[in-house]
Design goal:
This protein has three domains: 117 residues, PAS domain (Beta-Lactamase); 73 residues, Signal transduction histidine kinase, dimerisation/phosphotransfer (DHp) domain (Helix Hairpins), CATH 1.10.287.130; 143 residues, 2-Layer Sandwich (Heat Shock Protein 90). It contains eight helices and twelve strands. The chain has a five-stranded antiparallel sheet with strand order 2-1-5-4-3. Strands 7-9-10-12-11 form a five-stranded mixed sheet, with helices on one face. Strands 6-8 form a two-stranded antiparallel sheet. Strand 1 and strand 2 form a beta hairpin.
Length: 338
């Protein structure tokens, strides 16, 4: 470490700690000169450590300016810690990073001690989400206008036909139009809300599940809620999660199904005694358009996954008893109410 260190700092003091951190570490002084960098930071910038030590911090940290460094240095209070998302660059290599910088004194001399993490993957994910949201916003506009208008026209003509008397065929048309309305609402929900939730609060699983059950056409299906526990969630979106799971169980059942909601050590489960899950990787069920059939929209479980992610939960799908019958959706990482 001595080859990457200059000044009065004893490298032995930092040896064990710095190598165990697993992230980039850099120390610079009141002159803005790097006095120490570890191997992880040099590797991040794909440059030798000795090429960094002794160089000014503003030659790497793009947010700092040489003629304003003194003001920046003087603005730090003793022991103060600051975080920032910025970029560090050497030559043609620029890396988006997250930094945590703390003012510390060693042998009465002040230094800024910083840890630096590569956030390239996070930046790429952020760009991906921005592009996705833009596409979804455009799609939501198309759905709201281009699909609702012809649907309203179809409803108007259906009412005219009903003036001459009802028939089984007209009821089938009405059912198909109602299904289209559900599909449009699901698409709009997925596009406009996605992974957003409102303020979380303790919510009774029993109350919210039964409330959701009352809004779904369940026919002869039955619901059992085997817990009176509370979870911390956005009540509106949790109810929507249950509605979509209940609708999925009823629509994919071969007859009247029994649905059960129960608590687990790390969350809750919603299970049914229907025909079970299709063959293959169950994760595809949460992709938009994948979980539907002739009677479903294929959007409901995608919304379930979005709501879970928005709360910081994970969701997995599996056969209820491991024997190919029944379906179970398990939510983990859930915070319980008091």
């Amino acid at each position: 470490m001595c080859s990457s260190y200059t000044g009065d700092l004893d490298p032995a003091v930092f040896e064990e700690m710095v190598e165990a951190v697993g992230v980039g570490v850099a120390i610079y002084d009141a002159e803005g000169v790097f006095r120490y960098v570890n191997a992880a930071y040099a590797d991040l910038l794909e440059t030798p450590r000795d090429d960094l030590v002794g160089e000014p911090v503003w030659s790497v940290a793009t947010e700092l300016e040489a003629d304003r460094f003194d003001d920046y240095w003087d603005s730090f209070a003793e022991g103060e810690t600051r975080t920032a998302d910025t970029e560090h660059a050497v030559g043609e290599r620029t890396v988006p990073v997250s930094t945590v910088t703390t003012r510390r004194r060693i042998d009465s001399t002040p230094y800024n001690f910083g840890t630096i993490r590569d956030r390239s993957a996070l930046r790429a994910r952020e760009r991906e989400l921005e592009e996705r949201n833009e596409r979804l916003d455009t799609f939501a506009g198309i759905v709201a206008h281009d699909l609702r208008n012809p649907l309203n026209v179809a409803h108007s003509y259906l009412e005219l036909l009903r003036a001459d008397g009802d028939s089984d065929e007209l009821e089938m048309i009405d059912s198909a139009l109602s299904r289209m309305e559900i599909l449009i609402e699901d698409l709009l929900t997925l596009a406009r809300e996605g992974e957003m939730v409102g303020e979380a609060e303790p919510v009774s699983l029993d109350a919210i599940a039964r409330d959701a059950w009352s809004t779904v056409e369940t026919g002869d299906a039955t619901l059992t809620v085997a817990t009176d526990g509370d979870v911390v969630a956005d009540p509106r979106r949790l109810r929507q999660l249950f509605e979509n799971l209940f609708r999925n169980s009823v629509e994919h059942g071969d007859g009247p199904v029994s649905v059960r909601v129960d608590i687990t050590d790390d969350g809750f489960v919603v299970a049914d005694d229907g025909p079970g899950l299709p063959d293959g990787d169950p994760d595809w069920l949460f992709e938009p358009g994948e979980s539907g059939d002739a009677d479903g929209s294929g959007i409901g479980l995608a919304i379930v996954a979005e709501i879970a992610t928005a709360h910081g939960w994970s969701v997995t799908a599996a056969d209820r008893d491991g024997d190919g019958t029944g379906a179970q959706f398990a939510f983990e990482g859930v915070e319980f109410g008091d």
